[in-house]
């Protein structure tokens, strides 16, 4: 078939393109405002990409159009699909019907935070254990090389996103997946553009929980009260808890300041010790969840620990993009106060008293709506200096956040000016963490070039 993907540069849709091509389909796609790593990945795989949406992109009429959830009615190309009567579906539905329902053991990772890293860890553990898994993840792990792979084995790892499916299907994507193994990392309010409140999110997460079969297994963060509420709404599957407390089925004991060394405990027995390069309590929890899920698929804990020891990280998750004149630059996808705090604290724990500089773009729909304005300043307060760059219009006055942070915070609406201000204040030994869920105007390379 000729499959054409609208919104192909999104991490999910781009991964779908790789899988469809591996299945033998002709794949094309279109998107606007493309940026790495997905644009680079598609180019390397020789998948034809139209930049910008246009009815002309459909002149070679595809057999099926897969519509990304960023597309809305009124989009020129989507309107042409409807007017021409071309068959269409959503990405989540296509993945489910053509891959996951084809006798796959689906392992789905859900939660407000940590999905990409946990899914990457699990896929790498299974790969290291020679299980040849398939996977579709919202990021690119260095060990895996790609965000998606069809795989040769029965196991398939999918990042189970709670965002809506498509313009015609407003359920969360993860409703489609029907996993045998499911991880629930955490749950707090986000995506205010599609969820009215936390209760609305809980309802969708409980729908996901309902899709796990009785002979499947649910791994749930036992330290998260919101997830406990889900269980109270009903659970029909085997379940195991994981967390920091020793009363969970799986728990950890940290052995150093930055959590790069810790013990894995299964009930009252120490199952092994992890020594790896990923700092932060949040990454330690991601690792614990991945190890527990891998155990359900028959992977010994010792084998998982062996895989983690050589795990190199995920692009845009505290990824070091360069070191210039003793100044280290990180790229991080954090765009929620909980994620911002976790990332900055991970670096703080790793570098001690060295200066940590946060450069943050309030870009997500929820952030631009001002939902997190009361918790943003405390999250950024872990850093010694803060630069907030508002490249897009906000529905609230961010000066209040700057006021709470005091003289350590600067505001800018221009990337070039921000780069200049950061470069002038940066000193050897500094650690600059750039946080955004978008391309941020190429600020990472601009700053590296300026520092050079």
CATH class of the largest domain: Alpha Beta
What would you give as the CATH superfamily of the largest domain? Mur-like, catalytic domain
**Count of individual domains:** 3
Structural class: alpha/beta
- Report the C-alpha radius of gyration, rounded: 22 Å
DSSP strand tally: 23
What's this entry about, in short?
The chain is α/β, with parallel strands linked by helices. The chain contains 15 helices and 23 strands.
Structure commentary:
The protein has 3 domains: 2-86, NAD(P)-binding Rossmann-like Domain (Rossmann fold, 3-Layer(aba) Sandwich); 93-308, 3-Layer(aba) Sandwich (UDP-N-acetylmuramoyl-L-alanine:D-glutamate ligase); 319-451, Protein-Tyrosine Phosphatase, Chain A. The mean pLDDT is 94. It is of the alpha/beta class and 452 residues long. It is 34% helix and 24% strand. The chain has a 10-stranded mixed beta sheet, with helices on both faces. A 6-stranded mixed beta sheet has the order 18-19-23-20-21-22, sandwiched between helices. β21 (385-389), α13 (399-405) and β22 form a beta-alpha-beta unit.
List keywords for this structure.
Rossmann fold, 452 residues, six-stranded mixed sheet, Protein-Tyrosine Phosphatase, Chain A, 15 helices, single chain, alpha/beta, 34% helix, 3 domains, UDP-N-acetylmuramoyl-L-alanine:D-glutamate ligase
Topology of helices and strands:
Elements: E1 2-6, H1 11-22, E2 26-31, H2 38-44, E3 48-51, E4 64-67, H3 76-84, E5 88-90, H4 91-100, E6 105-110, H5 115-128, E7 134-136, E8 148-149, E9 155-159, E10 164-166, E11 169-172, E12 181-184, H6 198-210, E13 217-221, H7 225-232, E14 238-243, E15 250-254, E16 261-266, E17 269-275, H8 281-296, H9 301-308, E18 319-324, E19 327-332, H10 337-351, E20 356-360, H11 365-369, H12 373-380, E21 385-389, H13 399-405, E22 409-412, H14 415-425, E23 431-435, H15 443-451
């Amino acid at each position: 078939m000729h499959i054409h993907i609208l919104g192909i540069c999104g991490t999910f849709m781009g991964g779908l393109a790789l899988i469809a091509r591996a299945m033998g389909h002709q794949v094309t796609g279109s998107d606007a405002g493309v940026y790495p790593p997905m644009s680079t990945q598609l180019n390397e795989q020789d998948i034809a990409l139209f930049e910008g949406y246009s009815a002309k992109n459909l002149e070679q009429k595809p057999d099926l159009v897969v519509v990304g959830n960023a597309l809305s009615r009124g989009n020129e190309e989507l309107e042409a699909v409807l007017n021409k009567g071309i068959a269409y579906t959503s990405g989540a539905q296509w993945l489910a019907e053509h891959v996951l329902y084809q006798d796959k053991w689906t392992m789905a990772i859900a939660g407000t935070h940590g999905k990409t890293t946990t899914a990457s860890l699990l896929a790498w553990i299974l790969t290291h254990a020679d299980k040849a898994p398939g996977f579709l993840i919202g990021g690119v792990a260095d060990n895996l090389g790609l965000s998606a792979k069809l795989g040769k084995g029965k196991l398939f790892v999918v990042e189970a996103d709670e965002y809506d499916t498509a313009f015609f299907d407003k359920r969360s994507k993860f409703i489609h997946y029907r996993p045998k193994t499911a991880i629930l990392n955490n749950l707090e309010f986000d995506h205010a553009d599609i969820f009215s409140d936390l209760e609305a999110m809980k309802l969708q997460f409980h729908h996901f929980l309902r899709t796990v079969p009785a002979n499947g297994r649910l791994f749930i963060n036992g330290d998260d009260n919101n997830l406990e509420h889900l269980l109270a709404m009903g659970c029909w599957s085997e379940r195991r808890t994981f967390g920091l407390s020793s009363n969970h089925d799986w728990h950890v004991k940290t052995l150093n300041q930055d959590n790069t060394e810790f013990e894995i405990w299964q009930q009252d027995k120490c199952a092994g010790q992890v020594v790896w390069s990923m700092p932060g309590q949040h990454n330690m929890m991601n690792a614990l969840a991945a190890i527990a899920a891998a155990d359900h698929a028959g992977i010994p804990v010792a084998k998982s620990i062996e895989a983690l020891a050589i795990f190199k990280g995920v692009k845009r998750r505290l990824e070091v993009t360069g070191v210039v004149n003793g100044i280290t630059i990180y790229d991080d996808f954090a765009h929620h106060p909980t994620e911002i705090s976790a990332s900055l604290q991970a670096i703080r724990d790793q570098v001690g008293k060295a200066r940590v500089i946060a450069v943050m773009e309030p870009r997500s729909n929820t952030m631009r709506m001002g939902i997190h304005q009361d918790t943003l300043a405390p999250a950024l307060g872990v850093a010694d200096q803060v630069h907030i760059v508002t490249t897009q219009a906000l529905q609230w006055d961010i000066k209040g956040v700057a006021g709470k942070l005091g003289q350590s915070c600067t505001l800018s609406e221009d990337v070039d000016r921000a780069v200049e201000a950061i470069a002038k204040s940066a000193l050897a030994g500094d650690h600059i963490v750039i946080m955004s869920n978008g391309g941020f105007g190429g600020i990472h390379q601009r700053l590296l070039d300026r520092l050079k």
